[in-house]
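This part of the workshop introduces the protein records we will be handling. The question running through the whole workshop is how a given chain folds. To make this concrete, we reproduce a full record directly below:
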Amino acid sequence: MSEAAAAALAIAEAKIGQEDGVGEWTQITQEMINQFADLTSDHQFIHLDEEGAKSVGFPTTVAHGFLSLSMLTHLSSSIPQDPELLKGIAMGINYGFDKVRFLAPVPNGSNVRVRSTLKSAELKGNAINFTRTYTMDIEGSDKPALAADWIVRLVYG
């Protein structure tokens, strides 16, 4: 284990269970929904046809669940990170998800943001797997859009 990894692990272990912060609001637009539909070939009517979406109980078209999930990268980037955790990093990689739940639809035009809580930090040689629970808020809604346990592996030199 590198010294940088050992130092980061000690800092991270003291932060487990604490909220890292809340990100900035970002609007989900119909253009984004359309582009995601084209990229993924998922053209289900609830994403593209406002009248069709209304006919099944949605207020307007809704974002794909996977579009919301893919927005975590952007949305989490506005949450400040402890610079001490980042000292000595050689690279970071997306390791995957332990759990993802889509809890509420994201209507076209909604503003969303994420909040992050450090769930665990696990040493893997010269790397640490950081698992954070992200909850995506929908502005004006009591119910979050999604909750996900996302694992990012930081490799230390």
Remarks:
- The mean pLDDT is 96.
- Strands lie at 19-22, 26-27, 89-102, 111-124, 127-138, 146-156.
